[in-house]
Write a structure and sequence with these properties.
alpha/beta; Spore Coat Polysaccharide Biosynthesis Protein SpsA, Chain A; 2 domains; seven-stranded mixed beta sheet; two-stranded antiparallel sheet; 32% helix; 22% strand; globular
Length: 245
């Protein structure tokens, strides 16, 4: 099985313009991501997908592989779809790797790839147990529930399920909740299909593209990880990461 890693990287960002080019220990963030992905044994090939020539040139400059993609894409998934359509690749599985997580966690990528040993898996993603009330009730932390076979039932910005008859600060004592780790892997033909689907009502409501796939009958395999993602959303996040180097 061949696995292609696509790293979407946009220059424009409301909270942190130019984020992929921000320096960490003298190297741009996108280089940290590229090099981290390239070291993972299950990855057959990797490419940065961008709509900005500054990012494109930077990637080529450090010896990486990049592709210019349209600036009109609504999501990283759509950008991955364009790469697959245009790239001469025989990959069986495409992994969408976040371009703002310079410490790529190899165990997560390996776990995602292993899901496709099961020929029935169409899409795979990850979850991690929630241990704080702040995360549980934060709309910025997406929650997921899955069925007994490990397929996603629903994703929400609200805590799910609702714990009836208990105060908010007791919920974690009475049920195990999971946050969604926003990294996806797709079987080749499934990615080509989902990027052509129109936006759905649930997707629009929650602003979560994976709900579009569920509404259209696609199964999303969910596997649990203990690894924590370290993402950079703001200059403050970058400053913390730089202090840890």
């Amino acid at each position: 099985m061949k696995v292609l890693a696509v790293i979407p990287a946009r220059y424009a960002s409301i909270r942190f313009p130019g984020k992929p080019l921000a320096l960490i220990a003298g190297r741009p963030m996108i280089q940290w991501v590229w090099e981290g992905v390239s070291r993972i044994s299950v990855i057959s090939d990797a490419v940065v997908a961008t709509d900005d020539t500054r990012i494109f040139d930077t990637v080529l400059g450090f010896g990486g592989r990049a592709m210019m993609t349209a600036s009109t894409h609504r999501s990283g998934t759509d950008r991955c779809g364009e790469v697959l359509d245009r790239m001469d690749s025989d990959a069986d599985v495409i992994v969408n790797v976040q371009g703002d997580e310079p410490r790529v966690e190899h165990t997560q990528i390996e776990l995602l790839a292993s899901c496709f040993d099961d020929p029935s898996v169409q899409i795979a993603t990850l979850k991690k147990e929630i241990t704080s009330a702040d995360d549980l009730f934060s709309p910025n932390v997406v929650k997921v529930v899955d069925d007994l076979k490990g397929n996603a039932i629903y994703f929400s910005r609200n805590p799910i399920p609702f714990v009836r008859g208990k105060a908010d600060d007791e919920w974690l004592q009475h049920h195990k909740f999971y946050k969604h780790i926003g990294i996806y892997a797709f079987r080749r033909e499934v990615l080509q299909q989902v990027v052509r689907l129109p936006q759905s009502q649930l997707e629009t409501c929650e602003s979560l593209e994976q709900l579009r796939w569920i509404e259209n009958g696609y199964r999303i395999a969910v596997r649990e990880t203990d690894a924590e993602n370290i993402g950079v959303d703001t200059p403050e996040d970058l400053a913390k990461l730089q202090m840890e180097q």
